[in-house]
User: Fold this.
Amino acid sequence: MGCTSLTRGDTVLLVSVYGTAIAVALLSVLGLHGHDFGPGFSTFTTDILHQVCLSVYGICLMTNLLLFLGLVLPLRPLLVPWLTSHVLLCFALAAFSCYYLILYVQTECNAMQHPCSTTAGAVGLADDDQATIHPRPYLISDARTGYSLTSSVGIHNGAYDHYENVEDGGAGSECVGGNHVACTVLLGYSSSIVAAIILLTYLIYLVQDFFDKLKYQLKELSNQRTNQELEEQR
Assistant:
């Protein structure tokens, strides 16, 4: 018994159902636990982007519900908000991906070449001639837990970063990693966003194709009704 392929309408219906479920999951989980945008974002920026992302999830939820109603009724105008919002989402994700790539290029991704020791916020250097420090702060924070992870110090002739664990603005720090960790995070975020853009582009193609087909289907239904009314009048 051969497997039956889904029609374009059934596929778009699945898109609306899964899109609604994903939007609800993101609102419920990330709305409580917050977002982690990786290195390169301050606490203030993280809080603003957190609110923006929650608004985006809410818009996605509403547009997916409208998409579902547009399939059931059917009404073509109800598909327009979904198409518009997700096209804009693709552009926003592309900008985020480019920003992560810029941070990746600007970050020295070599392994740590010097020992790291900090006491009360001070960093000890291995050699006296390596006193030129170029701080480049990368901050990962969660304002809801009061915990932040900061990567800062860079030396002019090599990669030298330390991570400071700061809880409740307290004193003291502990060296736990290097720039290669930040590079892995940045590259992973950028790659994930590119994959999400490709998936969204395919979904937009499916909905747009159904949007065009629905136009001709509604015209055919209108013509059939008109012909039936003319036959009844005769």
In short: The beta strands are 118-119, 122-123, 138-142, 147-151, 163-167. Confidence is low (pLDDT under 50) at residues 111-177. The chain is about 60% helix and 10% strand.
